[in-house]
Amino acid sequence: MRKILLSFLLLGTFCFGTTGYKDFSWGTSKSKIIAKYGKDYVANNNSIIYTKFNFDGVTLKMTFVFQDEKLFGWSGSGIVENEEGDKLIDQYRKKYNGKLEEIGSAYRYDDTKGIIAFGSQKLKTGRTMISFACEMK
User: Fold this and answer.
1) CA–CA separation, 32 vs 73, rounded Å?
2) How far apart are CA 43 and CA 112, in angstroms?
3) What is the rounded distance in angstroms from the CA atom of residue 59 to the CA atom of residue 10?
4) Are 114 and 21 a contacting pair, CB within 8 Å?
């Protein structure tokens, strides 16, 4: 399972829909993302990273990836309470019901606009590691 989650993280991106992230479609400028989510980020090559990002009510590390200064993908990951992780994963499973490829406890959805991957891993601490990724095609 850890290898699967790491593979998703290596995609470098995570997604709400295959056309971008919430209000932002693929190709949105870096400055528009910063204007919406603030300047409390770390720049890293072609990405900006928010270490405490509200992702559907759960705090995750969020990375927006840019190609030629335009949104190309995003990823979100973190360790949350089991109940929060289960709820978020279930929400996405329902959203893409019938369209998901299941790989263990991870999921993948692929269409003409992008690829979404997400999954979770229960930890011995009683918490859950969750990861979401999306990349434009």
Assistant:
1) 15
2) 29
3) 20
4) no
The residues pairing with 119 across neighbouring beta strands, listed in sequence order, are 106, 131
Q: Which residues contact 128 (CB under 8 A, 6 or more apart)?
A: 79, 80, 81, 82, 84, 85, 86, 120, 121, 122
pLDDT band for position 114 (cuts 50, 70, 90): confident
Instruction: Name residues whose C-beta falls within 8 Å of residue 17's C-beta, 6 or more positions apart in sequence.
Output: 114, 116, 134
- Render 45-56 in DSSP notation, one character per residue: TTEEEEEEEEET
Structure tokens at 57: 């009510």
By C-alpha distance, which of 15, 3, 17 is closest to 77?
Answer: 15
What is the tens place of the pLDDT at every residue in 28-42?
Answer: 899 999 998 999 999
What is the pTM (predicted TM-score) of this model? 0.79
Provide the token pair at 133. 């990724």
- Spacing of C-alpha 95 from chain mean position: 15
Grouping H, G, I as helix, E, B as strand and the rest as coil, residue 7 is: helix
CA 17 to chain CA centroid, nearest Å: 10
